[in-house]
Recover the amino acids of this structure.
């Protein structure tokens, strides 16, 4: 084809000559004999198919072992709670026995093999509910402060402190609670509560020890606060800036901007954070065991001694002798296992829905 | 709206704003106060009880003074070593699977979900499971079964480490740029070698911090140990027998009526918290410096 | 010494996307061949089919024959083995960030099990000299990390890394597109010298670059190879009108 000479042409001078390097460049070193030795070496290497396959199966094994572990836990819990399950069925969780001597309601009598988990379920629910009641406003307040109001210099250290709070082991919280918190409540707070709120029937002066549902609720609140707070912060940060700006542009005050621009968008995630805190509170053992009083009774009085599901397992398992007793404790453990799975699963779904899998910031 | 009504509403809105700000600051103070209180009290009680004997002696019988928690510190060290040997390889392996082999598949999502489930299991239930799986059955050819042992507690703690290690490993591996993997594969490096020597190595600062986080978390766990390792008043390094552990010892001493034991509980708490604060601070330092040095 | 590449009826898919259609061509040994064409025309895919790198994408598929020398790379060997004979330089420099300059260059050998340090020293030096980087880094070989160099230096490091395994073919996928003009001209000079030793295939969207360094040029369009001829002919008297339109800038 005889092309019409186009407008833009590569000039002849730009073409490289047929041979030889441009002037001034040293020639490339001739390949020494070793190069072909290298080539021979590499050619002799196999294709590593076996190593690759073995490696990938090893990694697969590690990942699948997680399935196995969870399945084993579930299996053992179900297996070893069969005795009480078959004897009491679902009523295990709400049955009320009657003490033959005093004719008072009775729940937990290992000697006579009367097992009802009712007081423990009650105690777990009451202490967790109290904890949430106290922790939620504080956690959200902290999150709002850190995210929207805090001067930048303080943000890092405060966030770090919150992270530390989350890292303190339960037993140390328990130790502090027994030594400092319980006397504090007993001497100063509980009398106040009895005076001001005694009319509700929730605060009565029958327990001189200072242990009980309320103390457990307080220490649980301290423990779940960091979790709720940092997750709330994460979902608040995930709200795009444009939302905040839109509300401010309408002339809103800062609180109104937070309420309408941030919290409204993040509320699903905040609910998720709260539910995650609940999940943690339900399973918390050591600190609760140390301050709740470990008494298998049910009381409306929040200042009375009670017990929780995790507490009774921790206190009695090592010394339980009869198979029925062990089975009862294991069944309580199974219930804890299932409830925390459901609660945590729900929380994860809610949080994922808001943050859409954005990578978690460290602290 | 009339001018007066508008002014009034505006004042109310500003008032609300100030009120809320005050409440938020108040909330922050109320949260920080117990933390500071705990630390200060811990420092005060702990340092006054810490002496050389604490780190070198084992507990003495009730009524006598002196003695320490040396055996508990050693015991915790042994337990955490067993836990790390179990938890770290499985966790990293699972993380490698999620990032390198199963990325985006349904199986990977199932693994991740199950790891989260495992993470949420209350520690007391982990103890129950370890008890049921290792302490109870008397299998003739497996050495550690059939009785309370340090091994059973180590296993319980190790299993608890897996989800954290797995999740951080996966996150860190996903951050390695694809170009680096391509460069390795383009050189004819086998896939297994590329994953280990290039990808994992590049992400290793982050992976190590994940292990440290998991380590710090299980270091303070007590509940799984109550009916697996049981505790021990004497020196023991035998995996096949009950062993002392720092958090367990703190618990026992805290619940006792003896002042001397309370002192020791505080000292032990101080040691434990220092370890954990060090780990958390280290993690923060490494991740804030930028986990992947130089990777573009 | 390099070898020639013979491509017969190569077709490639990414999922359902038929990215390459019936590619046939012969790439001569010890020459530089440029592949030009607008974005998305398949030239990168084509180059990745030569060392089977496209297989790293799980939804990728290829049929046809590619012969490097007398080796049918899809029938007679596994991808890992092919990639040891065919070096690749990518668009963005990608040195290994955790390794020193020395370890970067030696990576292809060390990670394949080669451990003789004396020989490695020689190979690293020779590769860095061949990629015109030796003088700039010879004092910091083991001290500086691969990622601490400038962009142009990093790309030369990647070239040295590819050369260290003594490949027969060198594939370059737009090697200078992320670099400044000075580095670009250094890379082009490099290619000029290297092609006497290796068979080089260079993908470029810079036509002047193709004209400067390559003896033969192929023009790709929409997954097909429209024209493959000496560079001189492509740029002065192309046979196909589409080639002419691209050369003169009517599209692309």
């Amino acid at each position: 084809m005889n092309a019409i000479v186009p407008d833009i042409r590569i000039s002849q001078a730009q073409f490289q000559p047929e041979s030889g390097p441009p002037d001034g460049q040293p020639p490339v070193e001739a390949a020494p004999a070793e190069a072909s030795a290298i080539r021979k070496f590499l050619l002799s290497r196999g294709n590593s198919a076996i190593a690759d396959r073995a490696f990938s199966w090893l990694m697969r094994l590690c990942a699948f072992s997680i399935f196995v572990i969870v399945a084993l836990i579930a299996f053992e819990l179900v297996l070893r709670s069969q005795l009480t399950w078959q004897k009491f069925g679902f009523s295990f969780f709400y049955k009320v026995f009657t003490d033959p001597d005093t004719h008072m309601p009775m729940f937990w009598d290992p000697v006579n093999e009367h097992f009802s988990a009712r007081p423990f379920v009650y105690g777990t629910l009451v202490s967790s509910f109290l904890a949430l009641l106290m922790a939620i406003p504080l956690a959200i307040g902290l999150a709002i402060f850190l995210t929207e109001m805090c001067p930048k210099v303080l943000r890092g250290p405060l966030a770090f402190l919150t992270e530390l709070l989350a890292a303190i082991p339960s037993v140390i919280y328990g130790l502090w609670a027994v030594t400092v918190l319980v006397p504090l409540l007993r001497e100063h707070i509980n009398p106040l509560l009895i005076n001001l709120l005694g009319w509700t029937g929730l605060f009565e002066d029958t327990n001189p020890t200072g242990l009980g549902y309320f103390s457990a609720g307080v220490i649980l609140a301290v423990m779940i606060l960091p979790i709720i707070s940092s997750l709330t912060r994460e979902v608040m940060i995930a709200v795009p800036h444009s939302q905040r700006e839109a509300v401010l542009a309408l002339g809103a005050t800062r609180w109104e901007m937070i309420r309408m621009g941030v919290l409204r968008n993040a509320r699903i995630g905040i609910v998720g954070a709260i539910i995650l805190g609940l999940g943690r509170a339900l399973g918390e053992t050591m600190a609760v065991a140390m301050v709740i009083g470990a008494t298998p009774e049910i009381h409306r009085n929040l200042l009375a001694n009670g017990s929780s599901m995790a507490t009774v397992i921790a206190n009695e398992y090592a010394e339980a002798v009869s198979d029925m007793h062990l089975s009862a404790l294991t069944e309580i453990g199974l219930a804890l296992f299932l409830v925390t799975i459901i609660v945590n699963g729900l929380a994860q779904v809610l949080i994922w829905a808001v943050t859409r899998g954005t990578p978690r910031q460290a602290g | 709206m009339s001018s007066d009504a508008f002014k009034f509403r505006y004042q109310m809105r500003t008032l609300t704003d100030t009120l809320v700000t005050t409440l938020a600051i108040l909330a922050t103070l109320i949260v920080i106060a117990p933390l500071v209180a705990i630390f200060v009290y811990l420092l005060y009680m702990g340092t006054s009880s810490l002496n050389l004997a604490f780190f070198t002696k084992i507990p003495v019988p009730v009524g006598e003074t002196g003695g320490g928690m040396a055996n508990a510190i050693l015991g915790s060290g042994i337990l955490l070593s067993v836990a790390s040997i179990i938890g770290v390889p499985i966790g990293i392996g699972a993380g490698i699977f999620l990032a390198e082999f199963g990325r985006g598949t349904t199986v990977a999502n199932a693994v991740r979900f199950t790891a989260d489930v495992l993470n949420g299991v209350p520690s007391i239930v982990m103890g129950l499971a370890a008890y049921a799986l290792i302490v109870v059955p008397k299998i003739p050819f497996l050495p550690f079964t059939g009785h309370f042992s340090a091994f059973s507690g180590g296993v319980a703690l190790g299993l608890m480490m897996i989800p954290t290690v797995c999740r951080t490993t996966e996150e860190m591996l996903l951050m390695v740029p694809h170009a680096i993997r391509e460069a390795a594969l383009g050189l004819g490096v086998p896939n297994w070698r590329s994953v280990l020597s290039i990808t994992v190595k590049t992400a290793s600062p982050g992976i190590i911090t994940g292990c440290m986080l998991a380590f710090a978390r299980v270091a303070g766990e007590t509940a799984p140990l109550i009916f697996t390792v049981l505790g021990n008043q004497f020196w023991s390094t035998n995996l096949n027998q009950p062993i002392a552990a720092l958090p367990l010892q703190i618990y026992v001493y805290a619940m006792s009526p003896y002042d001397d034991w309370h002192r020791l509980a505080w000292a032990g708490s101080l040691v434990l918290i220092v370890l954990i604060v060090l780990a958390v601070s280290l993690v923060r330092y490494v991740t804030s410096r930028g986990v992947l040095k130089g990777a573009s | 010494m390099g070898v020639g590449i013979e491509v017969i009826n190569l077709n490639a898919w990414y999922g359902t996307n038929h990215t390459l259609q019936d590619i046939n061509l012969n790439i001569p040994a010890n020459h530089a061949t440029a592949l030009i064409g607008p974005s998305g025309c398949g030239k990168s895919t084509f180059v990745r089919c030569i060392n089977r790198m496209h297989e790293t994408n799980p939804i990728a598929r290829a049929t046809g024959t590619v012969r490097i020398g007398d080796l049918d790379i899809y029938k007679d060997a596994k991808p890992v083995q092919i990639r040891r004979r065919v070096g690749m330089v990518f668009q963005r420099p990608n040195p290994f960030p955790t390794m020193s300059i020395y370890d970067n260059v030696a990576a292809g050998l060390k990670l394949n099990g080669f451990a003789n340090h004396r020989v490695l020293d020689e190979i690293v030096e020779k590769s860095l000299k061949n990629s015109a980087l030796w003088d700039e880094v010879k004092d910091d070989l083991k001290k500086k990390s691969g990622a601490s160099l400038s962009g142009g230096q990093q790309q030369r490091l990647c070239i040295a890394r590819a050369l260290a395994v003594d490949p027969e073919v060198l594939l370059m996928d737009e090697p200078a597109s992320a670099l400044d003009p000075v580095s670009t001209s250094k890379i082009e000079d490099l290619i000029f010298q290297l092609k006497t030793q290796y068979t080089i295939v260079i993908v470029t969207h810079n036509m002047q670059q193709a004209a400067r360094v390559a003896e033969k040029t192929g023009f790709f369009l929409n997954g097909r190879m429209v024209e493959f001829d000496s560079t001189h002919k492509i740029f002065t008297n192309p046979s196909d009108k589409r080639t002419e339109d691209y050369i003169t800038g009517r599209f692309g």
Remarks:
- The radius of gyration of chain B is 25 Å.
- Confidence is low (pLDDT under 50) at residues 291-296 of chain B.
- Residues 3-49 of chain B form the longest helix (47 residues).
- Residues 70-288 of chain B form a domain with the MetI-like fold fold (CATH 1.10.3720.10).
